[in-house]
Amino acid sequence: MITLSRLRRSLTPFHFALLVIWAVLLFGGFILGRPEGDEQRRMPLWTRMGASITLTAAAWAWLARARNAPPAARRMLLGLAAGMSLSTLGDFFMARLIIPGENAVLGGMASFGLGHVAYSLGILHFGAASRLTLRRLPALVGWWLFGLASWLGIVWLPAASRGVMHAAALPYALLLATTTGAATGLALNRRRFQGLAGGAALFLVSDLILAGSLFSNWRFTGISDLIWLLYSPGQMLIVYAASAVLHGDGE
Predict the structure, then answer these.
(1) DSSP string over 67-126
(2) Does 53 reside within a domain?
């Protein structure tokens, strides 16, 4: 298992600095920010976007560091970097910084969905190349069932009327479940990937809360901050799982 001490030893000063910058942006934005409008959010927009951009830089830096790594490791790190980049694009869509209105949500779902395709392909390829496929299928099926049940309970059944976004939410939920299932399967084979699995699960839970906000009118003080306090640490754990890929000695 990748312990905190081993993680510290595996980080370059650049990666450590990016981790600190990310933490300051995310948690500093939450602590020092002021409630906006209906008090659903404290974090300023620039700190949220800055946190995602910082993680994107970290992901590509991990890939650059893997020049001499085995091909399977490089492909996984490419998947993590591409997935984080597409997720950051999704953040810009969801913040209405690219297009306004309902189309922004569809753009965000498409970007995040493609990001999870990149995550899943990288993880699944690495697992297959490393012969870590044991327990993978049960993990995938379990998370697919969870994703389907969550979509039914949060998006489809509570809706008075249903449209394109309600239908599009199902494949999106299954894509998130695929990433989580693939990461869980990897962690069941090698404990050092527990952080990756935990990060994918945090991402999924954050999106379930977001779905409740978008489709089931969930409203409570700080809901938007809660989403980001789950989502961004989840992304950090996914990106920094590169350490487990490149320093894979032991379990």
Answers:
(1) TTS-HHHHHHHHHHHHHHHHHHHHHHHHTTSSS-SHHHHHHHHHHHHHHHHHHHHHHHHH
(2) yes
Q: Is 173 part of a structural domain of the chain?
A: yes
For residue 36, the SS3 value is strand
The answer to whether 205 and 173 are in contact (CB under 8 A) is no
Cβ atoms of 42 and 225 within 8 Å: the answer is: yes
12 — phi, psi (to 5°)?
Answer: -75, 160
Mean pLDDT of the region 31-36: 82
Contacts with 13 (C-beta within 8 Å, 6 or more apart), sequence order: none
Give 59-118 pLDDT, tens digit per residue.
Answer: 999 999 998 899 999 999 999 999 999 999 999 999 988 887 778 888 999 999 999 999
User: Tokens 């003080």 — which residue?
Assistant: 221
Give the number of domains in the chain. Answer: 1
> Is 112 among the domain residues?
yes
What is the spatial distance between Cα 228 and Cα 173, in angstroms, rounded to a whole number? 18
Structural domain contains residue 177: yes
**What is the domain extent for residue 68?**
4-246
